[in-house]
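Because discrete structure vocabularies remain unfamiliar, we turn briefly to a single example record, giving the amino acid sequence and backbone structure tokens:
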Amino acid sequence: MKKLDFNTKSGLFLIAFMIVGLSITAGFDNDPIVIDLEVEQREPLFPKDERDVYIREQEEFISREISCLALNMYFEARGENRTGQDAVGFVTLNRVKSKTYPDTVCEVVYQADTTISGFPLRDRCQFSWYCDGRPDIANENIYNEIEKRAEFIYVNYYLNSGYIDDITDGSTHYHATYVEPFWSSHENYQQVASIGAHVFYRPTY
């Protein structure tokens, strides 16, 4: 794509044409150029109050998504260094990006087999902390630090896709280094990294 030079007359003309309709009278030999802008007044697509509601809802949604991401990073890897915690964040978002999993961070984090009443079954969750039977109480100071990085990863990896690199190379699964789950040797998963206390796998399908 040709880079536009907005310091030239041609560049200014192009901007004008892109924005509004024009009638132009141009002279030669350094004569002045007259641009008569004909701006059509249009009603906004949405009333201001509706736009404000929409913006507020989006802000609240993103805030919840970051909180869910931070909680998953905390409870899955709070004992690890920052790299190990961030790796869990990338896996969580890779699942959101995948067609195989739910479309939001919170739905991915809380995905589980449930009772008829909707309560998660013990040890039947995608992320073990959610239904391991232990109380989910976070240390505020540690959580706050993790939440800052969760926001950074969410904005720069998920919202602005690819702005930062995924240290797990597309992984959607991981397990602790001291276990070897049945799925880890399946042809659908390729081991790509060992970070902190976890081994990471990306799908091959």
Summary: The chain is about 40% helix and 20% strand. The beta strands are 21-25, 34-38, 112-114, 120-125, 173-176, 189-195, 198-203. The chain has a mean pLDDT of 84.
